[in-house]
């Protein structure tokens, strides 16, 4: 399972979570840092990523269009990269079950 981290999340998460989510990427590292949400959405869809974002925009798109791509909406306010990393690690089993569920398009984690 590969995550595509939105620009509101640190690029450092890719390396920090490589053992849990190998093959993940950050929008900045794939040339999408200043691109529209539509372009990021289409990239995630074309390259089989799950989008991870703290922004509600992708959650809204997911509710409107379904999947792919699937969306992880991280519902945390200001917090450190370490806290986001630990949240994703602690929720890895839930995220993996979410990926396998064909009925779910989006998951909110807090």
Protein model, in words:
The chain has helices spanning 12-16, 37-46, 56-65, 81-90, 92-100, and strands at 3-5, 25-26, 50-53, 71-74, 106-109. It contains five helices and five strands; from the N terminus they run βαβαβαβααβ. The relative contact order is 0.20. By secondary structure, the chain is α/β, with parallel strands linked by helices. Strands 2-1-3-4-5 form a five-stranded parallel sheet, sandwiched between helices. Strand 3, helix 3 and strand 4 (71-74) form a beta-alpha-beta unit. The protein is globular. The longest helix is centred in the middle third of the chain and has 10 residues, at 37-46. It has one domain.
Please describe the topology of this protein:
Blueprint: E1 3-5, H1 12-16, E2 25-26, H2 37-46, E3 50-53, H3 56-65, E4 71-74, H4 81-90, H5 92-100, E5 106-109
Parallel strand pairs: 1-2, 1-3, 3-4, 4-5
Please sum up the structure shown.
With 110 residues, the chain is an alpha/beta fold. The chain is built from five helices and five strands.
């Amino acid at each position: 399972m590969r995550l595509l981290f939105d620009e509101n999340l640190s690029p450092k998460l890719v390396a920090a979570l490589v053992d849990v989510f190998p093959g993940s990427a950050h929008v900045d590292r794939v040339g999408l840092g200043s691109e529209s949400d539509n372009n990021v959405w289409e990239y995630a869809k074309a390259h089989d990523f799950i989008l991870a974002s703290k922004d509600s925009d992708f959650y809204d798109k997911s509710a409107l269009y379904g999947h792919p791509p699937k969306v992880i909406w991280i519902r945390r306010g200001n917090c450190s990269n370490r806290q986001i990393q630990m949240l994703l690690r602690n929720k890895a089993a839930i995220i993996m079950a979410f990926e396998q569920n064909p009925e779910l398009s989006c998951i909110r984690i807090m």
